[in-house]
Amino acid sequence: MRVEESGEGDISELLHSFNQMTAELGSTEMMRNDFINTFSHEFKTPIVSIRGFAKRLRNENLPLEKREKYLEYIAAESERLSDLASSVLLIARYENQKLVTEQSEYDLDEQIRGCVLRMETLWSAKDLTFEMDLPKLSYVNNVEMMEHVWMNLISNAIKFSHDGGQIFISAVRTADSIAVTIRDEGIGISQADIGHIFDKFYQTDTAHSSVGNGLGLPLVHRIVQLSGGTIAVKSEVGKGTEFTVTLPAAHT
């Protein structure tokens, strides 16, 4: 799977990077036919858009207002491509991984609080509030890997919450497990969609009215699986969604 490397400068470099990435991914289990078709579509759509706006910018008589708007479109599509590429490479990395490496002991509760703080601009823009019940949780795992779990689940809760809503995060520790629950009061997920949310590129928001690429939850699912844990979801349309990640208390 390749795209034609036509164009100049940054556009040509972008297309070359895409082809290089598909070559690197070619040997992974991810590149099955069903994945390739969606993967190709998701990447080619913004590439075609960027190329089209770049061609229009060559018009010397283009009004300044349109020129600035086209540049904004190119910047947005470039960011979308960058996020998509990062997500695809992360999933490929973890799907080929059998054991968790670079483990260390750290405070899981502080990690979750840190993820919430890092997304303050997103939840404050929607006037959301958080209610957290997180006891001190000493945990052993790969810190960077687990951060992807909380960042994705919390960002989803923010994204699909109504303005002025509330998000609840709690954790319970037993002798052999840690269960972290993240619940929102947002739009919810239909029963028809709920069985597919961990499928790559699947988006319940079919109109793509919210930012996303359908790779966040598959990534979360794989990381939790690698960590010897499970992830469960409960949701009701119009009332919200609840994810519970259960991890072994002593992961090795």
The CATH superfamily of the largest domain appears as Histidine kinase-like ATPase, C-terminal domain
Which spans have pLDDT < 50 for at least 5 consecutive residues?
Answer: 27-31, 206-210
**What is the percentage of strand-forming residues?**
15-25%
Going across the biggest sheet, name each strand in turn. Answer: 2-4-5-7-6
Please, could you describe this protein's structure?
By secondary structure, the protein is an alpha+beta fold. It has 8 helices and 7 strands, in the order H-H-H-E-H-H-E-E-H-E-E-H-H-E-E. Helix 6 (143-159) runs antiparallel to helix 8.
Provide a compact summary of the structure.
The chain has helices at residues 9-25, 33-56, 64-95, 108-118, 120-125, 143-159, 191-194, 216-226; strands at 104-107, 129-133, 138-141, 166-173, 177-184, 230-236, 240-248. The protein is α+β, with helices and mostly antiparallel strands and 252 residues long.
Task: Quickly list its features.
Heat Shock Protein 90, globular, alpha+beta, 252 residues, five-stranded mixed sheet, Helix Hairpins
